[in-house]
Amino acid sequence: MANDSDHTTPYRVAEMTWQEIEDALEETTTLLLPVGSTEQHGHHMPLGVDVYMPEAIGERVAESSPALLAPPIWYGVSPHHTFKPGTFTVSTETFQHYVFDICASAGEWGIENVLLLNGHYLAQDPELEIVVRRLREERGLEAFHVPLVNLFAEVAEEIRTAEVSFHASEFETSIMLELFPEFVHMDRAEAVDPPAESRPLTDYDALGENQVGWSLSAEDMTELTPTGNIGDPTVATAEKGEALVEAAVSGIRELVEDLESGNGSVAAP
Description:
Elements: H1 18-24, E1 30-35, H2 49-64, E2 68-69, H3 92-108, E3 113-118, H4 125-139, E4 142-147, H5 148-159, E5 165-167, H6 170-179, H7 218-224, E6 230-231, H8 238-260
Parallel strand pairs: 1-2, 1-3, 3-4
Antiparallel strand pairs: 5-6
């Protein structure tokens, strides 16, 4: 894939030779690993949203910051989305082992810092938190779980129009309109309101209290939404997406540059 920026040093691991990796490790020991899922995203967006977002954001970071971009992980923990065709899911145990082994193998050839750019945020946060802990304790890697929503939450709160944006709605649709407008069919988008009230710690909103939101089942989702999305994607815009993407890129870039400068241990975002 050709780069449109002035950054000519290769950074996409899958497109590099081992000699180029060896050379790159003299300049950076940081790896960006996009982690997502292939799952339904309503009537208006494709199954690959949760990978398209972190990979494109990671690419923008790697274009201008000292980091390598790994091939993304396309399959995640998505049992709650199997109520619509096209969704793939793996078990929690399989997912944890797979992500851990990928990162551990990178550590074997010189990577010291790993950022797990999570596009399937909320749903597989628990698994990735465990992976990060194991990588730090067992492999000595500076590993970080980086859910995209954590990076753009402040901006999202400021620019949001809809009261609720939980899945395939205002935030994700806006980001996709900014990054991959050709994949978004706004004429098919429909608003789906969640229940008027939710139990404590179970808000149906990406910026709400979602302490157990990851535990929804396929049966739960069937009752919640006929289309697959929860919230209002019709208010999404590319302008909102640009602001959200910029916030995410800025946050990741700051972490990368701090790690590469050798400032010591830093807190996860």
